[in-house]
UniProtKB/TrEMBL annotation, chain A:
<feature type="domain" description="Spore germination protein N-terminal">
    <location>
        <begin position="23"/>
        <end position="191"/>
    </location>
</feature>
<feature type="domain" description="Spore germination GerAC-like C-terminal">
    <location>
        <begin position="201"/>
        <end position="348"/>
    </location>
</feature>
<protein>
    <submittedName>
        <fullName>Uncharacterized protein</fullName>
    </submittedName>
</protein>
<dbReference type="Pfam" id="PF25198">
    <property type="entry name" value="Spore_GerAC_N"/>
</dbReference>
<keyword id="KW-0472">Membrane</keyword>
<dbReference type="InterPro" id="IPR008844">
    <property type="entry name" value="Spore_GerAC-like"/>
</dbReference>
<keyword id="KW-0564">Palmitate</keyword>
<dbReference type="InterPro" id="IPR046953">
    <property type="entry name" value="Spore_GerAC-like_C"/>
</dbReference>
<keyword id="KW-0309">Germination</keyword>
From TrEMBL, chain B:
<feature type="transmembrane region" description="Helical">
    <location>
        <begin position="176"/>
        <end position="196"/>
    </location>
</feature>
<keyword id="KW-1133">Transmembrane helix</keyword>
<protein>
    <submittedName>
        <fullName>Uncharacterized protein</fullName>
    </submittedName>
</protein>
<feature type="transmembrane region" description="Helical">
    <location>
        <begin position="35"/>
        <end position="54"/>
    </location>
</feature>
<feature type="transmembrane region" description="Helical">
    <location>
        <begin position="102"/>
        <end position="123"/>
    </location>
</feature>
<keyword id="KW-0472">Membrane</keyword>
<dbReference type="GO" id="GO:0009847">
    <property type="term" value="P:spore germination"/>
</dbReference>
<feature type="transmembrane region" description="Helical">
    <location>
        <begin position="208"/>
        <end position="230"/>
    </location>
</feature>
<dbReference type="Pfam" id="PF03845">
    <property type="entry name" value="Spore_permease"/>
</dbReference>
Length: 349, 359
């Protein structure tokens, strides 16, 4: 009997000790920021802005809070202290970086490493760069009528407002590109729009965390195709006709000739003609589209080869042909010598 | 037959538990290319040792490792098992602590370390005191909970795969075999506990082939998932490549929107079970080689877990933990290489009746 009482006591003690019910902050006592904006202020301080949706009917309300300080971690800590509720960063979906931080390559690298290592911030949050003031971009949403609090993120979300020109680049991909031997990355650039929440400006090319240049929406679309993204839904205007791409596929063949890499890639497009001027034949539209896309590709390739940026990620495909230690020099040794035979086959649906 | 199935599952779970956290790190540091060759080398070496071990044990039906050592000589048993038990206690301590750190970073950021340690130690020690029957039945239960999650994690992370990230399928650098880290790798695939379970069943080598194949496939997946997602250049810079790989997957329809939580939960199940088995081994050894019959094995188990709880709590930071964990794993490798050979040679000799004093 005495033994049973002892067991019972232990049982009750475990319920108290092991339930793990301490430090719990209930969901209604938490604030869940959705978007984080960051910029530099007078060369030294970091300024962090958070957009926090207010959970009410319709989800159309949100507020922004701003704080600045010497390091990003300290600012996040200050925000936690000053905010009424407990801030929980685990649902952060988008990081907006102002160009005064993004242009400084050491700072950007440090920031990306911080985001990756941080245990609070999920590494699958998307990254974007803006030329505008970050605060304006985040608060712009409040002035628009009938817009969801999550619409800044939805702009990049493949399940929502995404269009084939837009990159959705999560933190871990930017982090990966800091070290990758063979692949550079393009981060979308946006501005706050007059009538829409955001306008898409193109993309900034990052090489080891350094911005090497920008590309426009047309070119970023092409880069997206090489990233195995379907071109579906893309509308192209040829002057005398407009078409919409309904399906696309890309095939690459790689080989080495006299120690210089050769790629032949074949892009197949299925198109549908939306409008045309009178008397224009299908054949001409197809020819013109193929020529336009090929021209656009070669122009971008030439430009990037000149500045040693492998934006298409061709180097990835030579991992089997070139040894790992030689791949280190891919951008400088092999990529400028790369020959690409790019062929577009368009077809009516 | 059920027993055999349970032992097979136990083998898989223990290897899973040890493989997730340190294993991929070691592989990436050992080689830049042809990772699978290294994994296969390790797995085949493990298979070879298991074969020797099983062959040796088959000379002594209905006896476990401790009985056999006691038969060779009491002094040898002491000489072997005292460091062995100390090593097991260390492994339990650091293994639980390493997992605790990861669990905290995944989903319990505000809970203090000691609380999670108590929880894990309490359940492991409790399971261990209940004896081998409970542990084996538990293995089936845990496998039903955890294995689907493991498989789900593997498949869901494939959305982020870039198959081009892997460089050079062939051509493993020779020096990576001779590295001390390869030695550590072996310690992460424990099998000595099999020797404690043979007294109950007629476990043979052939019945372990299927568990071995699944464990090898698992090791390959643990190494290749982060590699396909991040690539070799990045993976060497991450502290927990596998956890990061899980975290990179964005499934918006999934509960909590992140599968890392489920990975963390499965880690809890795995670590509790693996340490229960180790603590049970400590109890078995202590029971058989100590002369004081008054102390029951469960007391030994409680004592050992309190001791290792202390060790787990004392170590101040993460880097030291990982260092100590690797050291204890290295020591485990020594036992894993020595034991099969001793048992095999002794068994071979006593069957030939070379040892004259055989009964």
């Amino acid at each position: 009997m005495k033994n049973n009482g002892f067991k019972l006591l232990i049982g009750f003690m475990t319920m108290v000790l092991l339930s793990g019910c301490w430090d719990i902050k209930d969901i209604d006592k938490r604030a869940l920021p959705l978007v984080m904006g960051i910029s530099k202020e007078n060369e030294e301080d970091y300024k962090v802005t958070l957009q926090i949706p207010i959970p009410q009917e319709d989800n159309k309300l949100s507020r922004t809070v701003t704080e600045s300080g010497e390091t990003v971690a300290s600012v996040l800590g200050q925000l936690r202290t000053n905010f009424e509720d407990a801030i929980d960063y685990s649902q952060l979906r988008l990081i907006v970086i102002q160009n005064n931080l993004a242009n400084n390559h050491q700072e950007l690298k440090k920031f990306i490493k911080f985001l990756m290592v941080s245990e609070d911030i999920p590494s699958r949050a998307l990254v974007t760069i803006t030329d505008d003031n970050v605060e304006d971009v985040l608060s712009n949403i409040n002035e628009k009528l009938g817009v969801h609090a999550s619409s800044i993120f939805d702009f990049f979300n493949k399940g929502a407002g995404w269009a084939p020109e837009i990159f959705s680049i999560p933190i871990w991909k930017v982090y990966r590109s800091l070290y990758s031997y063979t692949k550079d990355i393009a981060v979308p650039v946006v501005r706050s729009g007059k009538e829409t929440v955001l306008t898409f400006q193109g993309a900034a090319i990052l090489k080891h965390g350094k911005i090497m240049g920008t590309i426009g929406p047309d070119e970023s679309q092409l880069v997206n195709v090489f990233r195995n993204n379907n071109e579906k839904g893309r509308i192209e205007s040829l002057g005398f006709a407009s078409i919409i791409v309904t399906n696309s596929s890309l095939q690459n063949k790689t080989s080495m000739k006299n120690n210089s890499p050769v790629v032949s890639s074949n892009l197949r497009l299925k198109i549908y003609i939306l409008e045309r001027k009178e008397g224009i034949k299908n054949k001409r539209i197809i020819k013109e589209l193929e020529k336009l896309t090929e021209k656009r590709f070669y122009r971008l390739l030439k430009r990037t080869q000149g500045s040693h940026i492998d934006i298409f990620g061709f180097g990835q495909q030579f991992h089997q042909q070139i040894s790992y230690h030689e791949l280190k020099d891919w951008r400088n040794e092999y990529y400028p010598k790369l020959k690409v035979k790019f062929k577009v086959d368009a077809d009516l649906e | 037959m059920t027993r055999l199935l349970q032992i097979g599952i136990t083998f898989i779970i223990i290897n899973l538990s040890f493989g997730y956290l340190i294993y991929p790190d070691l592989i990436y540091k050992l080689t830049h290319t042809a990772h699978w060759e290294l994994v296969m080398c390790h797995a085949l070496f493990q298979l070879f040792l298991i074969w020797i071990f099983m062959k040796g044990l088959s000379y002594f039906p209905q006896k476990d490792v401790v009985d056999i050592y006691l038969k060779i000589g009491r002094w040898l048993a002491f000489l072997f098992f005292i460091p062995f038990v100390i090593n097991l206690i260390m492994i339990v301590a650091f293994n639980i602590r390493v997992h605790t750190e990861v669990i905290i970073s995944i989903f319990l950021p505000r809970t203090p370390i000691w609380a999670i340690l108590i929880l894990l130690f309490f359940i492991s020690a409790y399971t261990a005191t209940k004896g081998i029957g409970t542990i084996l039945r538990c293995s089936v239960f845990i496998s039903i909970l955890v294995i689907p999650l493991v498989v789900f994690n593997i498949f869901s992370s494939s959305v982020n795969f870039d198959l081009h990230n892997v460089s050079q399928v062939m051509d493993l650098p020779i020096h990576s075999w001779l590295d001390i880290k390869f030695f550590y790798l072996l310690g992460l695939s424990p099998f000595l506990f099999l020797g404690f379970m043979t007294s109950e069943t007629n476990l043979t080598f052939r019945k372990l082939i299927v568990p071995w194949i699944s464990v090898t496939l698992f090791f390959l997946s643990v190494v290749y998932i982060p590699l396909f997602i991040f690539g070799q250049e990045t993976v060497v810079r991450l502290t927990n490549p596998f956890v990061e790989a899980m975290d990179s997957v964005d499934i918006s329809w999934f509960s909590f929107n992140r599968q890392t939580v489920f990975f963390g939960v499965s880690l809890v199940g795995l670590v509790i079970f693996a340490n229960a088995v180790i603590l049970w081994m400590v109890g078995q050894v202590a029971k058989k080689i100590s002369e004081w019959r008054v102390i029951k094995p469960s007391h030994w188990i409680i004592g050992a877990s309190v001791l290792s709880f202390m060790f787990a709590l004392i170590v101040p930071n993460k880097t030291l933990i990982e260092k100590y964990f690797l050291w204890s794993i290295g020591a485990q490798t020594v036992f894993m290489v020595i034991t099969p050979f001793i048992i095999f040679i002794y068994g071979y000799l006593s069957e030939r009746d070379v040892l004259g004093y055989e009964e």
